[in-house]
Amino acid sequence: MKKLIKTFLPENLLRLYRFLKKQLRFVPKDEQIYFDTNTVYGGHFKVTYRGISAIRCPFDYVMYQMIIWKIKPDLIIEIGTSNGGGALYMADILDKIGNGIVHTINIENKADKEVSEHPRIKLFTEGWVNYNMEATKNFSKILVIDDGSHIYEDVLGALKKFSHLVSIGSYFIVEDGVVNELRKEKGFNGGPLRAIREFLKENNNFKVDRAYCDMFGKNATSNVNGYLKRIK
Fold first, then answer.
1. In the CATH scheme, what architecture does the domain 43-230 have?
2. The pTM is what?
3. CA distance 13 to 36
4. Measured distance CA(76)–CA(27) in Å, rounded
5. CB–CB of 104/84 below 8 Å?
6. Whether 73 contacts 142, CB under 8 Å
7. Which tens digit of pLDDT belongs to each residue from 185-217?
């Protein structure tokens, strides 16, 4: 019966079916479960790491440590530092690996003292446009994360500037394509998803890695279609 329902009901009706099924089952109020894209998005602003603001979806933090441990990059380029909790998280993982450095890029220095003093973190505060590519010399395994403005033009620009640095088998992770699901894409001129679509049309060296995008459910991530794996 379940297979028949899944086969013949469109996705939106399937969601309604699941919702109504839940409502018909009595659950004490304090045991009820409710969360969705909006509640996760709201909660991600409250995430901290070692007491430092680390704004990122917890699903993605789980996947980041998996990717870093698997790839073991000697350089992670992070666009968008904010207070630096995310950079600190990644640098601590590199500490456990025993190799690698994080280049975290922002347009101003808001990083916590512990972040700026970490031996595996180097701060760049003149924006990704002014990042000197000479700084990537002598690194062979490179992972890039764009958690910058999320504006279409900026995301596409960053993809074009940094994608060639990504080593085969590693990733260019584009953050926050979820703005479309939240109906905020107009404020970002189409946002990350528009940039990803255009980039992939012109570049067949990358593919969307569904293993990460869909780990917790179809695009159950802030980085919708954003785990771009370099395949050649």
1. 3-Layer(aba) Sandwich (3.40)
2. 0.88
3. 17
4. 46
5. yes
6. yes
7. 999 999 999 999 999 999 999 999 999 999 999
